[in-house]
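=== RUN LOG ===
request id: a7f3
mode: sequence -> structure
chains: 1
length: 286
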Amino acid sequence: MVDLPADLAAKRDRLLDLLRSFGSCAVAFSGGLDSTVLAKAAQLALGDGAVAVTGVSASLAVGELDECRRLAARIGIRHEVIQTEELSNPDYQRNDANRCYHCKTELFTRLDDIARRMNVAVVADGSNRDDHREHRPGLRAARDQKVRSPLAECGFTKAEIRQLAAWWDIPIWDKPATPCLSSRVAYGEQVTPERLAMIDRAERFLRERGFQPLRVRYHKGDLARIEVSPEMLPRLIEPAFRRELTAELKAAGFKYVSVDLEGFRSGSMNAILPAESLQIMSRSEA
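=== RESULT ===
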């Protein structure tokens, strides 16, 4: 195994020391890269004192829970699954710029409950230093709920987390970001289980045919806006596949199917938010 660069090895050691100082830790575990690296570090630092907890609701894509279970077993960390009820919250359903705040508040509240029952000292999430430069209402929820962010506290960037994951032989070291399905619903359009199921079916169809990264965004009037990498656009609009794709998405419940010619870009929904909204959120989460 190739050694880590000295600065990254120092951050790794600092992360393990920080986690040891907690005594015990419950990790909010989505199965994404960041939370998986944090879960691995927690297991190394705390052994049986670490537990990974996955929140499940209609906003979790099909197959993600199974992936969480596989990763937890590979890491060797205890794994608990809890049901979250963010979709019953009218503030969440309303789907304004603070949707993630309400989701994370629900998750962290339930995580705190399970941590208390298991006599676990600290609840932690996988946010990193780069996250604090973006529109992330969930960071405010973490702060309000006194959730620790060890990766951010130790100064890890996303690129460094990928490098550490590869060094630890974590199989998803190159996994693209996989935010919850609700992030695909345009702000102001109500988040419902039915719309999330439409999005999930559409994305699974495209993913199974080799499109990655991708997003299927839901817009008013049951309109799908598909984002794929620019180099994949010619294949997406090839006549035979276009007909198959349109038929599948209409069967899923979409009335209109469109393609975003700019291609895939993370956070594209934020383009409609007023600049002052993003600035306010950024200041509140700094």
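=== NOTES ===
The two ends are 37 Å apart (CA to CA).
The beta strands are 25-28, 50-56, 78-83, 122-124, 214-219, 223-228, 256-259.
=== END ===
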